[in-house]
């Protein structure tokens, strides 16, 4: 059964560029409730584990370096149809292909430095949320 939660990270580029407030405002305005949230920084081991599915891809090293270079904001979000609706809100992986008004269209600078993560399935949302948060941090 589909769950109503997804997991997101505001990536180091979004934090460095001062976009935390604007992105959270957009998330709130789009009807998502914040279940859990924190500012944190991924270690190399964290990023390699989180993105293990991409370990054979040519951009893996670049991705790990990017995701560990500064703090992120991690959050679990709740809404009906959360995974799909959040993917719509963030837009395509490559900001050049992202629809007008999406978070990546507004704040991403490249395919790699694309401002925000959104889980791609209910199963991954649960795994990724549990990667960053304990049950005591979810409300
Ligand atoms: P998604 O984040 O839209 O689900 P994925 O294909 O799962 O996209 O890729 C995970 C992340 O890896 C992307 O968000 C982006 O930061 C990075 N990435 C994907 N493709 C490339 C690439 O071709 N060059 C550099 N980084 C990439």
From TrEMBL:
**Could you tell me the EC number(s) of this protein?**
2.7.4.6
GO terms assigned for molecular function: ATP binding; metal ion binding; nucleoside diphosphate kinase activity
Keywords for this entry? ATP-binding, Cytoplasm, Kinase, Magnesium, Metal-binding, Nucleotide metabolism, Nucleotide-binding, Phosphoprotein, Transferase
Family annotation (CDD domains):
NDPk_I
Q: Transmembrane residues, as ranges?
A: none
Q: Which domain of life is it from?
A: Bacteria
- Does this entry carry the keyword Transferase? yes
Which cofactors are named for this entry? Mg(2+)
Active site per database record: 117
Localization per record: Cytoplasm
Q: Where does ATP bind?
A: 11, 59, 87, 93, 104, 114
Key word Transit peptide present in the record?
no
Predominant location of this chain?
cytoplasm
Enumerate the InterPro entries for this protein. Answer: NDK-like_dom, NDK-like_dom_sf, Nucleoside_diP_kinase
Per the UniProt entry, what is one GO biological process? Answer: GTP biosynthetic process
Q: Name one Pfam family in it.
A: NDK
Q: Where is the Nucleoside diphosphate kinase-like domain?
A: 3-137
Q: Which reaction equations make up its catalytic activity?
A: a ribonucleoside 5'-diphosphate + ATP = a ribonucleoside 5'-triphosphate + ADP; a 2'-deoxyribonucleoside 5'-diphosphate + ATP = a 2'-deoxyribonucleoside 5'-triphosphate + ADP
What the protein does?
Major role in the synthesis of nucleoside triphosphates other than ATP. The ATP gamma phosphate is transferred to the NDP beta phosphate via a ping-pong mechanism, using a phosphorylated active-site intermediate.
Q: Which family does it belong to?
A: Belongs to the NDK family.
Fetch the NCBIfam families from UniProt: PRK00668.1, PRK14545.1
HAMAP family named in the record: NDP_kinase
Q: How does it assemble?
A: Homotetramer.
Descriptive protein name: Nucleoside diphosphate kinase
Q: Which organism is it from?
A: Bizionia echini
Traced from the root, the source organism's taxonomic lineage reads:
Bacteria, Pseudomonadati, Bacteroidota, Flavobacteriia, Flavobacteriales
